[in-house]
Design brief:
about 230 residues, tt1808, chain A, globular
Length: about 230
């Protein structure tokens, strides 16, 4: 399905309001992203289809991969991440928590910097995603951060990983446009998938990834190869 991509459709600036953290907890809902930073609540407008389409694609793709290898959990927004005890409460579009860090996950929030954070950029979130969150996620020790910008004429994906000094450095993308994650062993993302309209079938993308995982048993490799060929022929 082709949808209009006029820039005017992208969300307006988020609303900001002075508020303490407890008041933020009392008012934050479960259906809209509301963040708390430096004594101020940031309310974002409901995302548009293009934003949610990419979130859904990545959520399903990553969730299936993570579940297959029992690596941890994938959580989509809205879900609170309290980056440090007296620090910001963010609600990233997608987060990955490894098995080692599961003790930091509570029913209501994640405490600290998750292993992987993903933000899908909209017109209202550019500065937050590329400047403020980049700095805060780095400070919290989140090991990997993806910034995906699907806006018309702005399509770009940037990946950051922590170096030995705890500083974000750009992670390389191969010449053929593939990014290999550092926190998800054997997982890779073809950037061209993100800009397709419609987006690819997440099962097809998963099958393509899995056919390249050499540690799989021959039976599993055959199964994913057959799945890939079946879905690719549709």
């Amino acid at each position: 399905m082709m949808l209009p991509t006029n820039a005017a459709e992208w969300t307006p600036a988020p609303q900001r309001q002075k508020m303490d953290y407890q008041s933020y907890l009392d008012m934050a809902g479960e259906s809209q992203i509301v963040e708390w930073v430096d004594g101020e609540v940031i309310r974002y407008m409901l995302p548009i289809y293009g934003h949610q389409d990419i979130v859904s694609f990545l959520d399903v793709l990553l969730r299936q991969f993570v579940n297959y290898f029992n690596l941890g959990v994938i959580i989509p927004a809205p879900f609170e991440v309290k980056l440090w005890p007296d620090g910001p409460a963010r609600e990233p579009d997608i987060l990955f928590i490894s098995q080692n860090n599961m003790p930091n996950l509570t029913p209501k929030r994640y405490q600290g910097g998750p292993d992987l954070l993903i933000e899908i950029v909209s017109a209202s979130s550019v500065i937050e995603d590329r400047v403020h969150k980049l700095t805060q996620y780095e400070q919290a020790g989140a090991r990997e951060y993806w910034i995906i910008d699907p806006r018309p004429h702005q399509q770009q994906a940037d990946f950051f990983i922590l170096d030995d000094a705890g500083v974000y450095i750009p992670a390389p993308v191969s010449e053929d446009g593939i990014y290999h994650s550092t926190v998800l062993p054997n997982f890779w993302l073809k950037l061209a998938w993100l800009w397709q309209s419609p987006l690819p079938n997440s099962q097809l993308a998963l099958a393509e990834i899995m056919t390249s995982v050499k540690s799989l048993s021959p039976q599993a490799q055959e199964t994913f190869q057959a799945l890939y060929e079946l879905l690719d022929s549709r």
